[in-house]
Design brief:
This protein is mainly alpha-helical and 53 residues long. It has a single domain, classed as Atp Synthase Epsilon Chain, Chain: I (Orthogonal Bundle). The longest helix is centred in the N-terminal third of the chain and has 13 residues. The chain is elongated.
Length: 53
């Protein structure tokens, strides 16, 4: 069984929030200048470098 430290759990939580899709309202408000979330990450393609401290 793996135990997550508080440090790692907070970092993973932040990355999870960053990886959400962009709100539709923000896309409409900017007249589609902003199309997508640049922090979006796929769990298979891009791996995170989080140190376990």
């Amino acid at each position: 069984m793996s135990k997550k430290t508080n440090y790692k759990k907070r970092r993973l939580g932040k990355k999870l929030k960053q990886s959400r899709r962009m709100p539709l309202l923000a896309r409409l408000r900017t007249h589609r200048r902003l199309e997508s979330n640049r922090f979006a990450r796929d769990w298979r393609r891009t791996k995170m470098r989080i140190k376990d401290e």
